[in-house]
């Protein structure tokens, strides 16, 4: 073997195969507006080379299934009512998900408590979005509870899913400064548009290999993130969303 042969063999051996699209399965229960944000990001090539290969809903008439269908994505209804137990349902769900060989599972308004078996199966490659600045307001009715407490800021969080409900390591948050005249409805609207902003970004980071789940917490580019993950400020989110910067923000900047 000549030196040249050796070199060309070596180069051939180490040249990686081109990476196929990273496969994403999205789980929903309802309107699927976050799913739509992900579909839109994918169509603008802003999803880290990811492809949504299936959308699965536990609610047969969820509007999100229609969105999936219209985008040419396989839409699967898997109603939980047809199963005797949570364990039986999650077993069936695991089978449907695995058939699609996903790199990432994205929960986007999937209103089910997951069994430990399910969580363990996909640990480290399952993200959720929650309408609060975690660890505050885990669970339901987050906007009304935040308002009742008179908080100055609220928002949403993308986090890795663990067995603790809404308790896995946080990756990214978007903050919202609460106005005196905000209601649960206005908060929901403003938080929802922030969700649509940050969820595709977190998915992109994951699929680019920048984001990892570890025993100590979420890591970005190898560095452990703080408890609340990375945070998009009110001002930056408002600018991205073309919102009017509200009085509260003006007051803050003056004071
Ligand atoms: C969002 O508010 C999300 O934070 C919560 O469920 C809702 C889903 O909304 N987990 P959509 O179905 O994406 O419109």
Number of helices: 9
Q: What does the overall shape look like?
A: globular
The helix content is 25-40%
Number of strands: 11
The largest β sheet comes out as: 8 strands, mixed
Q: What is the string of helix and strand elements?
A: HEHEHEHEHEHEEHEEEEHH
Rg of Cα set? 20 Å
Low-confidence stretches: 1-13
**Biggest sheet strand line-up:** 3-2-1-4-5-6-7-11
Describe what is shown at a glance:
The protein is of the alpha/beta class and 255 residues long.
Architecture overview:
The chain is an alpha/beta fold. It is 39% helix and 22% strand. The chain is built from 9 helices and 11 strands. It has helices at 3-14, 33-43, 63-70, 86-99, 116-122, 142-148, 184-207, 234-241, 247-254; strands spanning 22-28, 50-57, 74-77, 104-107, 126-130, 153-160, 170-177, 211-214, 217-220, 223-224, 230-232. It has an 8-stranded mixed β-sheet with strand order 3-2-1-4-5-6-7-11. A 3-stranded antiparallel β-sheet has the order 8-9-10. Helix 5 links the parallel strand 4 (104-107) and strand 5. The longest helix has 24 residues, at 184-207. The radius of gyration is 20 Å and the shape is globular. The model is unreliable at 1-13 (pLDDT under 50). Bound molecules: 5-O-phosphono-beta-D-ribofuranosylamine. 5-O-phosphono-beta-D-ribofuranosylamine (GRF) is lined by residues 28, 30-34, 64, 108-109, 129-131, 156, 192, 195. The site of 5-O-phosphono-beta-D-ribofuranosylamine has 15 residues, from helix 2, strand 5 and helix 7.
């Amino acid at each position: 073997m000549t030196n040249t042969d050796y070199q060309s063999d070596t180069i051939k051996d180490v040249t990686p195969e081109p990476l196929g699209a990273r496969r994403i399965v999205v789980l929903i229960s309802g309107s699927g507006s976050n799913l739509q944000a992900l579909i839109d990001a994918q169509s603008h090539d802003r999803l880290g080379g990811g492809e949504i290969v299936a959308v699965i809903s536990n609610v047969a008439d969820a509007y999100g299934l229609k969105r999936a269908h219209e985008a040419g994505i396989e839409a699967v209804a898997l109603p939980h009512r047809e199963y005797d137990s949570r364990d039986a349902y999650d077993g069936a769900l695991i089978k449907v998900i695995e058939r699609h060989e996903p790199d990432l599972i994205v929960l986007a308004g999937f209103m089910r408590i997951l069994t430990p078996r399910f969580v363990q199966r996909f640990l480290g490659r399952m993200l959720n979005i929650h309408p609060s600045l975690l660890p505050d307001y885990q669970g339901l009715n987050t906007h009304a509870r935040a308002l009742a407490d008179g908080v100055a800021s609220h928002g949403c969080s993308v986090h890795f899913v663990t067995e603790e409900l809404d308790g896995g390591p946080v990756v990214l948050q978007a903050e919202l400064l609460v106005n005196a005249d905000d209601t649960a409805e206005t908060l929901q609207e403003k938080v929802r548009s922030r969700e649509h902003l940050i969820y595709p970004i977190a998915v992109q980071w994951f699929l680019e290999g920048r984001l990892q789940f570890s025993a100590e917490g979420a890591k970005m580019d190898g560095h452990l993130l703080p408890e609340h993950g990375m945070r998009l400020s009110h001002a930056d989110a408002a600018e991205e969303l073309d919102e009017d910067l509200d009085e509260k923000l003006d007051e803050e900047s003056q004071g």
